[in-house]
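TASK: fixed-backbone design
INPUT:
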């Protein structure tokens, strides 16, 4: 069973701990700097590969050195990257993340080639042949806001593909635009802020109920240190976060998605899959970067 992650691909440069930005030409010495494959598609793909789930990724990067690195590091972790296209003259999306001592992560970001991803860049047979198709960052991949892509999603679901969706930004104009995907998705996994933006609701349970009304099978709202809320037609379940020392929260949402998908493929129900997502996210929170702490992890043991 193969997963395809489709959407945003980003190179992250992370440094910790950063308490302030140096003045002038001053230098602050740090404990750690990493460069990783990240983004709601690429980061989830790497996490899936690290926990033993066969995965291919599809998206767009620039024809530049950052794109070379991103494709190399994903392939090195075991991701099939033949669906990642190169866009001549465009920059690969990248973020610089100065990680605070408490694990918070302000960012500097260039969206790059993700904005140019379109239906013409995709292998339709790979999408319709996937066991799970994970849409990562549909709020910023504007070229996929296309009725023909929605029809492709419907075709894939009719053939047995399960479609999951996560978002990338917390910008209202972008997040609300992703609502058009909901009738074509089985499971949607926003964070709390995104869920409220998508629906205009005042609270997370109200937001989850509104999203269920759009036709999805389940809504999984991640709540940071408060865990997550899982909503289905059977009701709402609160899943607490695991009590772990937090080094960096970068990529915890992607890790939650990866664990959730692995749980579904392993035969767990939605709540059980969400508990696995919680455990995988906790591993990532304990290190620097969106794939930290996952080397050698067996999801069956979590």
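OUTPUT:
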């Amino acid at each position: 069973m193969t997963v395809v992650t489709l959407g945003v691909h980003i190179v992250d440069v992370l440094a910790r701990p950063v308490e302030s930005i140096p003045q002038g030409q001053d230098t602050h010495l740090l404990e750690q700097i990493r460069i990783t494959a990240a983004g709601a598609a690429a980061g989830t793909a790497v996490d899936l590969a690290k926990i033993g789930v066969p995965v291919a990724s599809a998206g767009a990067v620039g024809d530049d050195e950052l794109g070379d690195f991103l494709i190399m590091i994903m392939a090195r972790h075991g991701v099939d990257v033949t669906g990642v296209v190169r866009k001549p003259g465009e920059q690969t999306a990248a973020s610089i993340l100065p990680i605070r001592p408490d694990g918070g992560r302000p960012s500097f970001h260039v969206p790059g080639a993700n904005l140019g991803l379109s239906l013409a860049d995709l292998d339709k047979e790979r999408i319709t042949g996937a066991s799970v198709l994970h849409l990562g960052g549909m709020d910023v991949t504007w070229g996929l806001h296309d009725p023909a892509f929605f029809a492709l999603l419907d075709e894939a679901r009719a053939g047995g593909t399960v479609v999951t969706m996560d978002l990338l930004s917390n910008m209202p104009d972008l997040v609300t635009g992703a609502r058009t995907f909901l009738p074509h998705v089985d499971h949607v996994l926003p964070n709390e802020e995104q869920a409220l933006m998508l629906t205009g609701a005042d609270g997370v349970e109200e937001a989850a109920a509104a999203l269920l009304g759009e036709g999805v099978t389940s809504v999984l709202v991640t709540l940071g240190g408060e865990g997550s809320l899982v909503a289905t037609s059977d009701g709402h379940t609160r899943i607490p976060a695991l009590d772990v020392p937090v080094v960096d929260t970068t990529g915890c949402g992607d890790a939650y998605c990866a664990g959730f998908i692995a749980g579904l493929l392993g035969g767990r129900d939605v709540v059980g899959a969400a508990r696995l997502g919680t455990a995988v996210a906790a591993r990532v929170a304990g290190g620097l970067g969106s794939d930290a702490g996952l080397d050698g992890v067996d999801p069956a043991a979590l």
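COMMENT: The longest strand covers residues 55-62.
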